[in-house]
Amino acid sequence: MESHNNFFKILKKKILYIDNLLKRNLNKLNIYNYPEKKKNFNKNNRVSLTLVFIIFLIAGYLSIPAFYDKNNLKLLLKSQISQKFNINLNSLETLNYRFLPKPHFSVQNLSALDNKKTELIEVKDFKIFISLKKFLTPNSIEITSIVFENSNFNLTDKNSDFFIRLLDNDFLNSSIIIKDSNIFYRNLSEEVLFINNIKKIKYYYNSKKSVNSLKAKNELFDVPYSLEIENDKINKKIFSNLNFKNFNFKIENQFDYNTKDRYGIINFIYSKKKIPVKYQLKKNSLSFQTPEDLMDLTMFSVGVINLKPFFLDADLKFNELDIYNLLKSNSILVEFFKTEILNNKNIYAHTKISSKKVNPINIDNFLINFKIEDGLINLDSTKFDWLEYLALKISNSAIFVKNDNLIFEGLITIDIKNLDMIFQFFQIAKSARSDIKNLEFAFSYNFDQENIKFNEIKVNNIINENIKSLSGKTFFVKDNFKNQIYFKNFINKFFKSYSG
Asked: In this structure, are residues 375 and 400 in contact, taking their beta carbons and an 8 Å threshold?
C-alpha cells in the first residue's frame, strides 16, 4: 500500500510540473507584440499539451498495477484463477506487468497441479489479462482471460477429462486460450501413448446460444482436425463436432447428462453418408446400437465397451463396404494403426464386421474378426465366399508396424467349391486344368507400399515344386490385381505352372 501511495505522490508532482511548464511558456510568449499570432500559437499549444496530459494520465492509470505489492498480488491471482477456472497454479515467481497491447501479467516457466498435487501442465509462457475498469486496488482486479503458450499437458486415465471439465466453468465474462502446445497422453507406466498438437483452443461464452463453447484446431498423428463443443448447462446437454476435413469425415455427437445413466447419439458422416448410433453411458460401461427405425441404412451396429478394464465387444453390419479405400496407404484407418496406440496390453477388443456387398469385388458372407489381446492385433477367423466358387479363411494373422510401414501378415486357406466354374471364369486352357481341392499360403501385405508377397504355397496340402517361382515375389495391388486382364493372366500362369 505504501508503494501505491508513492505512485500517486509521483503522479501529483508530474501534473504540477506540466502545469508550471505551461504557465512559463505562455508568459514568455507575451514579449512578442503579435496579438493574432500569439492567440493562434497559444491555442495550438494548449491543444497539444492537453493531449499530452490526457495520454500521460491514461498511461499513469494503466501503470497502477505495476506498483502493487507483488507477494500479495500473486496470492490474489492464484486464488482467482483457482476459483474461476478450477486450475491450480504452482507458482507465479516471474510475474511481470505490461499494459501493451492490453493490460496483462506475464509469467514464464510455471506449472499447474491436479487434485492429487501431481504436475498436470508445464507452461513456458502464461498471460493473465485483466479488466480495464478496476485498477485502483489489487483486491478489485478482475481476470478476463488466461492464455497458455508453449505448454505441455500431461494426461492419463485419471485426468483424461480435464479439457471437458473446463467447460463447466463460468465463461460469461472470461475465456481460456491455449496456443502452440501439446497434449501427452500417458499410460499408468508413464509411457507416452500419443501426442496431440494444439494449434489453438479457445473456451468462451457463446451469447447467441447461451452456452459455454470450445473451438479447437489440432493435429493428431500428423492428421489435422477441428473440434467444436458446446455445453448447455441449463438443459444439461453437450454438443460436439469433430471434423477430419482432409478425409471428408465428421463425427457429430449430442450427449444428455441430465440423468444418472446418460444418453447420446453419434452421427458418423463420410462422403455425405450419415450413420447414426445411439449410446448409453453408465459408470463403467458404454453400450451402443443403431436406432431401430434406421436399421435399413448403410450400417447396423450393436455393442458394449467396458471402461475398467477396457474391453470392446461389437458387431458392425454394413450394406456396402469399400475395402479398397480402407487399404489405401493414406487412409485414416492405416494412419491410426501406425500410431500403435492399440498395441496396449490394457486394451482388449473383439469386433465382428460383416457386409452384404463388398467393393471392388463380388463376394458373399463377408466377415472380419478383429481382435486385440495382450497388445497384439489379429484378424483370425476372417472369412468370405467368392460367389459359389470358393471359400477363403484367414488364420495366424498379425497387424504391426515395421520400419514405419504397416504390415498385415497371416495364413490364407482356400477351399474350392466349384472348380469347373473357376476354369470357365478365368478361361483356363484344358491342358492346364488340374484337380485342386484347396490352397494354402502365407502372405505379407504392406499397406504403405500397397504390395503383397506370397510364401509357402501349398496345393492339396502339398508344396508343389512347379509353383515355387511365385513364392517371395512382390505383387503391387494397384498394378497387378486391380487390372482384370493381368489378374486373369496371373491365375492362368498359376494353373500352367502347377500342371507342369
From this structure: no
Cell numbers 474350392 label which residue?
416
* Residues spanned by the domain of 196: 68-234
E strand or H helix that includes residue 45: helix 35-62
Q: Does any domain span residue 286?
A: no
Instruction: Specify whether 42 is located in the same domain as 115.
Output: no
Cell 482384370 -> residue: 484
As a three-state string, the secondary structure of 264-292 is EEEEEEECCEEEEEEEEECCCEEEEECCH
Any idea which residue has 499410460 for its cell?
187
Q: Are residues 90 and 119 in the same domain?
A: yes
**Total number of domains constituting the chain:** 3
Note whether 411 and 386 are within 8 A (CB). Answer: no
> Do 73 and 140 have their domain in common?
yes
The helix/strand/coil state of 182 is strand
The Cα 177–Cα 123 span in angstroms is 13
Judgement on whether residues 92 and 25 belong to the same structural domain of the protein:
no
Residue 296 lies in a domain: no
Model pLDDT for residues 85-134, shown as the tens digit of each residue: 999 888 888 888 887 788 888 889 999 887 667 788 999 999 999 887 76
* pTM more than 0.85: no
146 in a structural domain: yes
The Cα–Cα gap between 497 and 86 comes to 73
Take residue 352 and report the three cell numbers written for it.
465382428
Q: Which three cell numbers stand for residue 455?
A: 510364401
Are residues 85 and 26 part of one domain?
no
**20, 37, 62 - which closes a domain:** 62
**Does some domain include residue 81?**
yes
The pair phi, psi for residue 380, each rounded to 5°, is: -60, 145
DSSP of 231-242: EETTTTEEEEEE
Q: What is the CA radius of gyration of the chain?
A: 35
pLDDT in tens, 248-268: 889 999 999 887 778 899 998
pLDDT digits (tens, 9 = 90+) for 27-75: 554 544 445 554 554 555 666 666 665 665 555 555 666 667 778 888 8
Do the bridges between strand 175-186 and strand 143-155 make them parallel or antiparallel, or are there none, so unpaired?
A: parallel
